Amino acid sequence: MLPRVIVFNAVSVDGRIDWFTPDIGRFYELASRWREDATLAGSGTLLSAVQEAPEEKEGAFEPQEDPGDRRPLLVVPDSRGRVKNWDYWRKQPYWRSVVVLCSRSTPASYLDYLRRRRIEHVITGDDQADLRAALAELRARYGVETVRVDSGGTLNGVMLRAGLVDEVSVLIHPSLVGGMTPRSMFRAPDLNSPEGVLQLRLTGVEEMPGGVVWLRYNVTR
């Protein structure tokens, strides 16, 4: 059994996730309704969110374990070992802890760094983290039943192409961005046939102030 996975993005009418100004407060108020056990974010998302973080010092952060803490885990695939400011993210009030998804090709020096920093990590896959196996491990090891993907189009694309997403939720803003190289919420290699098109079943429509529309779909198998 795998956790239920929800992809949730704020987009323009033409499906872009850049340039327009989303209603962040509304976005995260709606996101809280899922009561997720884990938030899945791409390493690129974390790196772009914090361009400069204080240099970490050995022993600077001591994770606090509280069995009654109901906040979600922050789960990040980082097979290449790019993120090295985990203290910053562990100190944020939104998550109870961090879990890094690695692969068997992750540099040994990075795995050693995670162990020294007492950062939980899961190793699956050869070149990249096997996300299906990682989701199963998150459920077995941490009791994760609901995962919300809070990321850009690349991680969304990997999850969708792998058939790991149960629900797609979009908060559509009354904006058109256009462009020749659009950053959409679903970035993946072009299809070779219509067989790869994902079919969705509409489960909810809600009109909100300011012309924003919230659409929710289940992914049909």
Distance between the termini: 15 Å
Q: What's the total helix number?
A: 6
Order of helices and strands: EHEHEHEHEHEHEEE
What share of the residues does DSSP label as strand, in percent? 15-25%
Broad shape: globular
The biggest beta sheet, please? 9 strands, mixed
Counted beta strands: 9
List unreliable stretches of 5+ residues: none
Percent of residues in helices: 10-25%
Broad structural category? alpha/beta
- Rg, rounded, reads 18 Å
Question: Widest sheet: strand order?
Answer: 5-4-3-2-6-1-7-9-8
Mean pLDDT: 93
Would you summarize the structure shown here?
This protein is of the alpha/beta class. It has helices at 24-31, 43-49, 86-90, 108-116, 131-142, 153-161, and strands at 4-12, 38-40, 73-77, 97-102, 120-123, 146-149, 167-173, 200-208, 212-219.
Tell me what the structure shows.
- It contains 6 helices and 9 strands.
- It has 221 residues and is α/β, with parallel strands linked by helices.
- It has a 9-stranded mixed β-sheet with strand order 5-4-3-2-6-1-7-9-8, with helices on both faces.
- Strand 2 (38-40), helix 2 (43-49) and strand 3 (73-77) form a beta-alpha-beta unit.
- It starts with a strand and ends with a strand.
